[in-house]
Structure formats: structure tokens, C-alpha cells
UniProtKB/TrEMBL annotation, chains A, B:
InterPro entries: HTH_LacI, LacI/GalR-like_sensor, Lambda_DNA-bd_dom_sf, Peripla_BP_I. SUPFAM superfamilies: lambda repressor-like DNA-binding domains (SSF47413), Periplasmic binding protein-like I (SSF53822). The keyword Cytoplasm does not apply. Residues 6-60 form the HTH lacI-type domain. PROSITE patterns: HTH_LACI_1, HTH_LACI_2. Keywords: DNA-binding, Transcription, Transcription regulation. Transmembrane segments: none annotated. GO terms for molecular function: DNA-binding transcription factor activity; transcription cis-regulatory region binding. The keyword Transcription applies. This is LacI family transcriptional regulator.
């Protein structure tokens, strides 16, 4: 069934070089003229030569595989991060292995042992929370994406959550809104607290009442709307798109129009919420694919012996839609 | 940094056997007494011996890695399938590599060449549609999950979509509903057509008007509600939870109560829709983790030289909630 494999010697013969020279050219090692290297690569392309990864792993000590360790079993955050990671790694012909720990420390340990035994080249660690997390203990290059390592010497890439929240508030202020309420998730979540603090700092005098902490649900958005309306806001900034969608639904039920009476902003740019909301939500996109691309780039550098140290913060992006701009 | 590795000879020494015997016991090969095998395994456990996968790959010709090829870049369907696949494979210490083709045939070809070159043991192919798909051409064991191969000799595992749709209708009939309308997705999608046919066949005389085809969106659910209400239904069965959520929202806006005036059912059991809906949805759960587990089990058998041929249909499960039962 398996077609007869094209061998390195076939490539060497067509290129008119020795097998050793062909190997050096294909593995990008040794001292060869550019012309010889090109001739071998052209011969390999012509014959459809596929390097055998296992052989390559043996000679280089590398498996050309990177593990993505995630606690986010729904995939809502890890899938866009993985796409970004793959964009960078697949260009370098590295495979990405997704390991879903399901937030279980024992499962995480098992995966890590298996990945080390399998000889992966490096690990990207991600999750669904933004709290710093304990570093993983492996003798390999590691980059943390979204949830930074609690060790500031480790390489971490995170979203500038405060900047994203501030951008939403500046947008509301630029539209002339002067009474801005804030509804968000649990006070025990760093993402909720960080966004709320940025909202308060940016809104200043325009902040209307205290930030209201609760759950990351539409239901909480609906309930909290009744509370914040007592303060008579002309804008409600929300810590997530789910909350913002609930706010829009409740405002409509109460006969208040969005954005004419009250402008509403979300956070996440999760299409199933932000676009299905009535009206569609102005929101903050954390650009998770960018996060994945940057994490993968740092990991490649670490694998090449040039590790990064410290936390890198990437900008989020404000996306404006009808919930603040009208139709 | 890397702790001194425990070597096979250390295990052999502790067990009081030769290195060759230790190797046979750890690789489960050769002729050894159960007692000797146990002694070696206990010594390995005591020392925390981790077999080197690359060494194992060389001796067995296997990489103990399986690829999951998906076209579903949002991960909504592929993540639960992957969890099921991992449940089965990780018990056998196989790693799962997720390859997201983003529905791009060129990207699919690139991934397949890379996986073959890397020597994966087998491939699970999945997607976000249920249409039969062209088989992939690789010299490896392959199992198709969700979207079956168009070659009936290939091993495919699919959900009994018609059975799931019928279960929802039988539930409505058992509640005494006699005028059941059906709203679903595009007439070009096999999942929409298959469910609609099962609804019509099961409802019989109770079917109210023709099935209404449109989009898999909440907006379509709201729009279509106005159309089907002209037929005065006492139940609306929907092809997806998104449609059903839109139907519930529109019925509430029109002052009709769910389920007292009109009972509503969804399909997918997607928590973010089915639980956030007001009221929460009675729906059909396609049990995608089961699908993944079964696909992985068939793949393991194929890798062991016992391939399955043909399509295996797994049951979906009716989940009852307030949208039919009331509160």
C-alpha cells in the first residue's frame, strides 16, 4: 500500500552529489555553496522527497513537535491561541500537540511526563484564566500565553486587559457619555478586577456608582441592569460579551433603546455573543491569535538557545458596532 | 537542569535481572514469567523510570501518536470529539496531535504529508458537517468521525441524527402536542434535511406545515417564528439550539408562553445556547465525546491489524428541560 519511498540517495543521484552532501543540504547543516544546496533542494522537490521525521529527530536530537498545554477544555480561548501557534510553527514544519489538562493537576503532571519522555522541543502553556499560575517544572523551553507564570523570569505573553477596558471607556467618553456604569464577573477573577480598575481610572468623574461584580453570564447582565439603572447611566460598560448581551436584552424589555438611551460595550469579541446580541456589540477583541503567534515565536527563539525573560503585554483592539454607534 | 535520567540498567539492577530482560518486560515483548515481568515493572515504578518514546518508536516502528484532522476551526464540534479520543488513547499512552485544516484542501494535503512523514500510527478525520467526505489517501489506519467517508468500506462513526430528531418529536407527542412545526438550517445541509425528514416521518399527522429551511442562527429562529405561528402550532421543533433560542425569544416578545402555549425543542445541547435560553431548552445531545471514544477504539483496533469496515451509527440523547416541561 505504501508507495515506494524516495530515498536520500535518489535525491543525491539526481543532484549529482554524494549522499552526505545531500543530507547536509536537506538538513541545512555543514559547509556547502549556495549553488549546491539549491541543486539538492530542487532535486528533492522534483522527486517529492519527504524527510523522515524520526530519522531527523535522531540526528538532531529534536522531534519537531511542540506541546500546547491548556486548562481550557471548552476550547473557547485555547483554539484561537492554538491557531496562532500553528501559524508560526507549521511554517517551520513543527507539529503542535494539544494537551487538555481539564484543570486537573494530576492530569497536567501526567501530560508533562509524557511530553518530556516523548522529547517534544518545547511547551506553550495556556488556560482560560488570566491569573498568574505556578510554573511547570520541565527541562525544556516553555512560554506561557494568557495566564503568565508566577515566576517573573519565565517568558509570558499576556493581553493588555487594562488597555482594552480603557479603550472602551475612551470610546464612550468620545461619544459624549458622562454617566458610565460597569457590570462584570466575579471579584475573585483577576480579569474582572483588572478591567474594573481600568474602567474606574479612565472614566474618572464619569464613573456612575461602584463596579458591580457577579458572574460571567447573560442572566447576571440582566439582573445587574435593574440595579445600575437606579443610577440613571447613559452607558453601561461590561466585563464580557455575555454580560453585555444580557444587559441589551433587559434594556429592550424595559423599553430603553440601545444606544440612544444607554450605550453598551462588551469584552471578548466572541462572535456567538457579540454578533447575535441585539444590537450587535461594540466590544474589545483580545486578539488571541496574535497572542499565540507571539508565544510560538518566543518558543522558537528559546529552542534556538535565545530564551526571552519576563512578561510581554500585547494590545487588545476595540471593535465598534451598533451598541454604541447606532444603526 | 535535567535531572539524571533513570536508565533501563538501573531498573534491571533493582529487579535483579539482565538489561535485556528488563527491556522485554517494559516493552511487553518476549517470553517472560509473569512474576519476572511484575518485578521489573515494580522496580521501574519505584525508580520513576520513564521509557524514552523515541527509543521505543525505533524498536517498534511506532511513534505512539495519533493525528486528529479537523475542518472545524471553531472547535465547537472537534473539541468534545478530541476529548473522547484522548480518553481512550491516553489510557494507552498515545498522544493526540490536533491538525486544523481550516476547511482548506491544500492545508489538509500539507498536514497529511507531514503526518505520514512523521510516522503517526493513525488518523481520526472529523469536521463540522455531517456530509460524507472524500476519503483521505494515506498508507495508514484511518477512522472518520461525524462526517463519514464516501467510501462505504472505510471505518466511519456517525451520530444517529434521525433517531435524535425522532426522540424530540416523540417527547412532544407524549406531552399531548398535536400541531408540531419544524424550523431548521439550510436545505443544502445534510444535517438539516436528515433531521427534517425524521421529524416529518415521526410527527405524521401532527406535522404542522412544511419544515422551514433557513440558517443556523438565532435571527432565523426569530423570523421563522412569525411565519410558523400562522399555522397555530402548539410545539416548534428546531434543527439547532441557536434557532430554538431565537424562537423562544420571539415567542416571549409576542406574549406567548413557553411551554404552556408553545413547547420548543432544540438540537445540539450546546450549553451557551441551551442553558442561556429563556426558558432553558429541551434538546438533543449528539454525545460527541462518545463518538470520539468509539472512533479511537476502532483506530486502536485498526493499528493492531483488525480494521473495521463500514459506518457505525451511535445514538443521540434527548435532554429534557423547561422549554417543554415547564418550571
Amino acid at each position: 500500500m505504501r508507495p515506494p519511498a524516495v530515498r536520500m540517495v535518489d535525491v543525491a543521484a539526481l543532484a549529482g552529489v554524494s549522499a552526505g552532501t545531500a543530507s547536509k543540504a536537506l538538513n541545512n547543516t555543514g559547509q556547502l555553496s549556495q549553488e549546491t544546496r539549491d541543486r539538492v533542494l530542487q532535486a528533492a522537490a522534483k522527486l517529492g522527497f519527504t524527510p523522515d521525521s524520526r530519522g531527523r529527530a535522531l540526528s538532531s536530537g529534536r522531534t519537531y513537535t511542540v506541546a500546547l498545554l491548556t486548562t481550557d477544555s471548552t476550547g473557547r480561548f485555547s483554539i484561537p491561541i492554538m491557531r496562532g501557534v500553528e501559524d508560526v510553527l507549521s511554517a517551520g514544519e513543527l507539529a503542535t500537540v494539544l494537551c487538555d489538562t481539564r484543570d486537573d493537576p494530576l492530569r497536567e503532571q501526567t501530560y508533562l511526563r509524557s511530553m518530556v519522555a516523548r522529547g517534544v522541543d518545547g511547551i506553550v502553556v495556556t488556560g482560560r484564566r488570566t491569573e498568574p499560575r505556578p510554573p511547570i517544572d520541565v527541562p525544556l523551553p516553555v512560554v506561557y500565553a494568557m495566564a503568565p507564570s508566577s515566576n517573573p523570569r519565565d517568558a509570558s505573553v499576556i493581553v493588555d486587559d487594562a488597555g482594552g477596558a480603557a479603550a472602551a471607556i475612551n470610546h464612550l467618553l468620545s461619544l459624549g457619555r458622562t454617566r458610565i456604569a460597569h457590570i462584570t464577573g466575579p471579584a475573585t477573577h483577576r480579569s474582572a478586577v483588572g478591567r474594573a480598575e481600568a474602567v474606574a481610572a479612565t472614566a474618572g468623574e464619569a464613573l456612575c456608582g461602584e463596579p458591580l461584580y457577579g458572574e460571567w453570564t447573560e442572566r447576571w447582565g440582566r439582573q445587574a441592569t435593574d440595579v445600575v439603572l437606579r443610577q440613571n447611566p447613559d452607558a453601561i460598560s461590561c466585563g464580557s460579551d455575555q454580560i453585555a448581551r444580557g444587559v441589551c436584552d433587559r434594556l429592550r424589555e424595559l423599553g430603553r433603546s440601545v444606544p440612544e438611551d444607554v450605550a453598551v460595550t462588551g469584552y471578548d469579541n466572541w462572535p456567538v455573543m457579540a454578533l447575535a446580541s441585539r444590537p450587535p456589540l461594540t466590544t474589545v477583541d483580545p486578539r488571541l491569535e496574535d497572542l499565540g503567534r507571539r508565544a510560538a515565536t518566543l518558543l522558537l527563539k528559546a529552542i534556538a538557545g535565545r530564551p526571552h525573560h519576563g512578561v510581554l503585554e500585547l494590545p487588545a483592539q476595540l471593535i465598534t458596532r451598533e451598541s454604541t454607534l447606532g444603526s
